[in-house]
Amino acid sequence: MDALPIARLQFATTTSFHFLFVLLTLGLVTLVAVMQTRSAFGEKPELTRMTRFWGKLYVINYALGIVTGIVMEFQFGLTWTGLSAVAGDVFGAPLAIETLVAFFAESTFLGLWIFGWGRLNKWVHLTLIWLVTLTAYASALFIMVANSFLQNPVGTHAENGVLKLDDFGALFTNPALMSSLPHVLSAALMTGGFFVVGVSAYHFIKRTKEIEFFQRSMRIGVLASLVGSTLVIGFGFGQFGPLGEYHPDKLKSPDPLVGASLGFMIQIGFIAFLASMLGTLLLFRNWITKVRPLLYVMVLAIPLPFVAAILGWLVREIGRQPWLIRGQLTTADAVASIPAGQILFSFIAFTVLFAALAIADWVLMSRVAKRGPDASEEAAAPRPELPVLSGV
């Protein structure tokens, strides 16, 4: 039994699960920050209740996503020892900074935000959610810096088979990063928008009495979807130019997953954009909540951004093969010299764990989403659904 394909499948599964959590986390925290900003300046009770309700869903997704991130970090040292040996000094630097940003700063600000309701000045409390948002974006930045180095190793030189860092700043001006980072962030915004719209549509299907609450939520979600889908398409095609310079053969990969995944991803992106345009037009004519079949479509459309995101990662990662660090280290040389049976066992164990986390996330978020906002939520003491841990 060959250890390499099992190790690749294991890491692909870990990364995919983690990315799904992160995508919604980044999107929701942005919308929650916008809602609280409007609440702070407008002082409308509905906006405060919206911040609390969507903030609960954000915290649940954040907390459960932590475990997948921790497992992913461990796999670098356990399964891909060749990567650590050849590029640990370079690849490890942005990951270490990301850990400090995500595990300490972001979680600290988030904890203060959760337990600061009714205890902190509203402007201090508002500042905290924006600090949470900014540190979450910083976390995404450093992860993409590390990943972009694998796509296009810059700012380094080889010394006795080990890559040494010459220019830390070059990692941040890497052509593989310049369009991919905003592409990921805009995908997260689109995902958050689709989620808010879908949950709001569900409540209109159930003929909710919280008309103003979910109308306001749907407006924010639709506009976020439109902005996010527009930017996703723009930055997505914007990557083709730099790609031709540092990796011209990626889109010509013989692996059929690259060409099948790219095509479906582009189609889903345009579908999301058209759906957001239609939703925006109906929104301004006040028809969006009155066309009942459209409400069902909104609920069913929640998974679309997640599917597109995974397809995008398949194109980005599989298209680099057989290189782990393009031109410097092959995937075969990077895998650890451990029996395939051990990797298979850990793969099965991690997959079961991730499936359990995904189910728990879905059950908890569905329960809170279906229940809707509490009528007395504005005055109630903060009761987080899950204990806050650290990380994205």
UniProtKB/TrEMBL annotation:
Superkingdom classification of source: Bacteria
Protein known as: Cytochrome bd-I oxidase subunit I
GO terms for MF: electron transfer activity; heme binding; metal ion binding; oxidoreductase activity, acting on diphenols and related substances as donors, oxygen as acceptor
Family label: Belongs to the cytochrome ubiquinol oxidase subunit 1 family.
Pfam family membership, one: Cyt_bd_oxida_I
Annotated keywords: Cell membrane, Electron transport, Heme, Iron, Membrane, Metal-binding, Transmembrane, Transmembrane helix, Transport
One Gene Ontology biological process: aerobic electron transport chain
Subcellular location: Cell membrane
Entry annotated with the keyword rRNA-binding: no
Species annotation: Amycolatopsis japonica
Membrane-topology annotation of the record: Multi-pass membrane protein
Spans through the membrane: 17-36, 57-78, 90-116, 128-150, 184-205, 217-237, 257-282, 294-315, 343-364
Keyword Cytoplasm among record annotations: no
InterPro entries: Cyt-d_ubiquinol_oxidase_su_1
One GO CC annotation: plasma membrane
